[in-house]
Amino acid sequence: MTRFLLRKAPSVFFVLFASSIIAFALPRLAPGDVAVVLAGENPDAQTIAAIREQLGLNKSPVLQYADWVGGLFRGDLGESFLLHRSVASLIGDRVGSTLELAVLSTLFVIVIGAGLGIMAGSARIGWVRALLDFTDSLFVAIPSFVVGLGLILLFGVFNRWLPVSGEVGVLQNPAIGIQYLVLPSLALALGPAAVVARFIQTEMATMRKAEFVDLAVSKGASRRRITFRHVFRNSLGSAVVAVGLQVGHVLAGAVVIEAIFARNGLGQLAVTSVQSRDFTVLQVLILGAVFVAVVCQLFTEIILAALDPRIRLGE
Where would you find the membrane-spanning parts of this chain (predicted)? Predict the structure, then answer.
């Protein structure tokens, strides 16, 4: 394990370094000046210059980047230009909402993806397999925001079964909180779940042609035992890889889903920061999303090695 982490450390640091440059540069490449926004209507040049000096925007981009990265290493994420609050406190107030959404969405991805993948990989009747393939393709093709709007109409307008906007913390009231989470989590999870199902289906089709499966059939093993004990069990590696790859999709989709379902999470904070050009908040959110994706990818490789003894982390 230690050898594996040491071997991965250079690439992780390189990815985070490159991502920090992109996260720093992208918000500043957008048209407009945050000092003009903060100065209000009809500002004079002296007021704008004073604001730029106060915020350190009169420094060169290299010095601004160095100050920001230095603050990150000290645990200082900076201060919001617009709200005059620390970025850490803003993220801390909203991270719980996004974390709840991401966790339940990931659970849906695993359960739905595994279920569809196993059924599609085991179906022997042509029209059943075609129906499952069509379902996978449909979930992959439809954007998450369209799925979210459809779920709102179906479960919140035509049938008032679940709430469609706002949120209640799961820790505060588990029963009500889950009700507020179901629709946005499903909207966020169906697309990635279909991708996972495709991975599992393809791997199971390959595994069914393996010699150990033929041996199990010759010994008289039941179809159910062959599917779960031999085929699906040896296809878990692809499932783990697929779930790990979909973490980035879940994080990106959370921005739109939180806006549609009026959730006060990090995605909504990112949208507000873009609109107000509050790039001190936005750059931390971008780098944080990359960091979470990198950590999830590392866990994916560790789990994959634990499932498959043919893989050795240090090799």
Answer: 12-30, 101-126, 138-158, 178-200, 239-261, 281-307
**Average pLDDT of the chain, as a whole number:** 80
pLDDT digits (tens, 9 = 90+) for 122-137: 777 777 778 888 888 8
d(CA 249, CA 245): 8
95-278+290-307: which CATH architecture? Answer: Orthogonal Bundle (1.10)
Query: Is residue 207 within 8 Å of residue 213, measured between CB atoms?
Result: yes
Question: Which of 220-245 are b and which e, b meaning 16 or more Cβ less than 10 Å from the residue's Cβ?
Answer: eeeeeebbeebbbebbbbbbbbbbbb
Helix (H) or strand (E) holding 215: helix 211-218
Question: Which pLDDT belongs to residue 308?
Answer: 63
Phi then psi for residue 168, to 5 deg, are -135, 130
Residue 173 DSSP class: -
288, 21 contact by CB (below 8 A): no
pLDDT confidence of 4, banded at 50, 70, 90?
A: low
Check residues 274 and 307 and name the one with the higher pLDDT.
274
Q: Establish how many alpha carbons lie within 13 A of residue 148's alpha carbon, considering only the half-sphere containing its beta carbon.
A: 24
Residues 51/38, Cβ–Cβ less than 8 Å: yes
- Cα angle for residues 130, 131, 136 (degrees, 5° grid): 95
Q: Looking at residue 75, what DSSP letter applies? A: T
Letter string b/e over residues 193-215, b meaning 16 or more CB atoms within 10 A of that residue's CB: bbbbbbbbbebbeebbeeeebee
Residue 44 corresponds to which tokens in the numbers above?
A: 């004079």
Domain with CATH 1.10.3720.10 in the chain: 95-278+290-307
